[in-house]
Amino acid sequence: MQAQSPTASPTQPTTTQSQSAASRPAASEQGNDALESVDFQNFLTLLTAQLRNQDPLNPSDSTEFVAQLAQFTSVEQLVNVNNKIDKLASALVAEGIDKYSSWIGKQAEVGSSPAYFDGASPVSYRISGNGDAVAAQTVITNSNGVEVARFPSLNGPVIQTWDGMVDGEPAPQGVYAVTAVYYGSDGNVLDKEIANTFGTVQAVRLDGDAPYLVLNGGVELTPDQVTGLGQ
């Protein structure tokens, strides 16, 4: 009696079955990429071809086709939504730039921003004033935070100037912070205030999706820091 060849265990897949199972995830991922790269009409064409060429003795489960159709429809809708959001964002960004383009060339009064000294022209600034103070001083500091000048100032919301002089010599060109210091009758400091400064708007640019302004000397600030515009 000839010995019979051992049969494959029903719990162990054959080599062909293992390769087929292993290839399913990759095929699924490729299918997902294909869904994103074709339109709905092309997908229907592919689906029809798949139905026409399937093995009649081993047809695919109809639920698989329904799942594919639902998956593609979801992807297509998400792509359309993303496209609309991108267009809306682009429109808003363009509108933001256009909104402030008319400010270019105008003098802006800005809060919480340093001023640029060009080496010749005085620096203009404005403080709010403090009704409880008996005296006020203006303090000028350079970009390194070093105090370079201090002098008495008017205690009120009027435009004042710093002549740019430090110890009898013009200060170097650069960006300077202007601060008001208010004193009480006892000589102690009551309060401090960052003065409003002035500069000419040179450009409007974007930081991501947010517009910002560039003043003379390269001073950068957001539009909401502007408290006034003039010629």
Question: Could you please describe the fold and organization of this structure?
Answer:
- With 231 residues, this protein is α+β, with helices and mostly antiparallel strands.
- The chain has a domain at 107-230: Immunoglobulin-like.
- It contains 3 helices and 14 strands.
- It has helices at residues 15-37, 40-52, 62-101; strands spanning 107-110, 115-117, 123-126, 135-141, 147-152, 159-162, 165-166, 169-170, 174-183, 189-194, 196-207, 210-215, 220-221, 226-230.
- Strands 1, 3, 6, 11, 12, 13 and 14 form a 7-stranded antiparallel beta sheet that branches. Strands 2, 4, 5, 9 and 10 form a 5-stranded antiparallel beta sheet that branches.
- Strand 4 and strand 5 (147-152) form a beta hairpin.
- The protein is rod-shaped.
Features:
Immunoglobulin-like; 14 strands; five-stranded antiparallel beta sheet; 231 residues; seven-stranded antiparallel beta sheet; rod-shaped; 33% helix
